[in-house]
UniProtKB/TrEMBL annotation:
Domain Methyltransferase: 63-152
Gene3D superfamilies recorded: Vaccinia Virus protein VP39
Pfam families associated with the record: Methyltransf_25
InterPro entries linked: Methyltransf_25, SAM-dependent_MTases_sf
Cell wall biogenesis/degradation among keywords: no
Keyword DNA damage annotated: no
UniProt-recorded name of the protein: Class I SAM-dependent methyltransferase
Record organism: Candidatus Mcinerneyibacterium aminivorans
Source lineage: Bacteria, Candidatus Macinerneyibacteriota, Candidatus Mcinerneyibacteria, Candidatus Mcinerneyibacteriales, Candidatus Mcinerneyibacteriaceae
SUPFAM superfamilies linked: S-adenosyl-L-methionine-dependent methyltransferases
């Protein structure tokens, strides 16, 4: 769980939830590049991107949303009678989820996940939350961890975007520098800022399909399918546990 002054996401979500004046959530990269986060974290199913709607048929059993935010994906699944749980490092996000009727929500980071929270059949990492894997090495460690807290036929449904599909010269420059320093092009170092609140600097990973295949090689997981965005670089990977 993070300190209140560092809970930029949580304060942003709480202002939306309580219908206060809301200012933009800013994502700052360590090269100075800034962007405003326009993702709708409270969107109901009818407003989900088409690629996210397509994942419903691959969800099964007990579901864990990793980085659940204010719980919008879990609410939809709860309404469909799935057994749902979520983890998030934001205490305010956990509070919002509970206020919205979700029970099994825990202020836990991915690296602290263990079987005390449960054994799961589906892991959700939507909204580009494959980025929480941080880097290539950590991703393999976390995939191993997920294997330990999952049933034999479990799936991971992970959303990301291909960093190479950009025309932005500042992104291209950043990717080039990363490769020169032995990192994946989409291995970002970012922080979120909202009003007076700002998160710690954190690693955040964007990968191409080829890079994802490389990352999961020699893990307990395999690619089942990719679900592409109609436009743009985003896509969702459905990973199945190897038998």
């Amino acid at each position: 769980m993070i300190n209140d002054i560092k809970d930029a996401f949580g304060h942003y979500f709480m202002d939306i939830y309580k219908e206060r004046d809301v200012y933009g959530l800013v994502i700052e990269r360590d090269d100075g590049y800034i962007d405003v986060d326009t993702y709708d974290y409270f969107a109901g199913y009818q407003f989900w991107p088409k690629r996210q709607k397509k994942i419903i048929k691959y969800i099964k059993g007990k579901v864990l949303d990793i980085g659940c935010g204010p719980g919008s994906h879990l609410l939809e699944l709860k309404d469909r009678n799935y057994d749902v749980a979520g983890i998030d490092t934001s205490q305010l996000s956990v509070q919002i989820c509970k206020k919205r009727g979700l029970k099994n929500i825990y202020p836990v980071a991915l690296n602290s996940l263990d079987s005390k929270i449960g054994i799961f059949d589906t892991f959700l990492m939507l909204g580009n939350n494959f980025g929480l894997m941080k880097n290539e090495k950590k991703a393999r460690e976390y995939l191993k961890k997920l294997s330990k807290v999952s049933n034999p036929e479990a799936v991971i449904i992970a959303e990301t975007m291909d960093p190479y599909k950009t025309t932005n010269k500042f992104h291209k420059r950043y990717h080039k520098k990363n490769r020169e320093n032995g990192r994946l092009a989409g291995q970002l170092r970012v922080r979120a800022r909202y009003k007076i609140y700002k998160t710690n600097w954190m690693e955040y990973l964007l990968v191409s399909k080829g890079e994802m295949k490389k990352i999961i090689k020699n893990t307990d997981w395999k690619i089942d399918r990719f679900i592409n965005s109609i436009v743009g670089p985003g896509y969702i990977a459905v990973l199945k546990k190897k038998k």
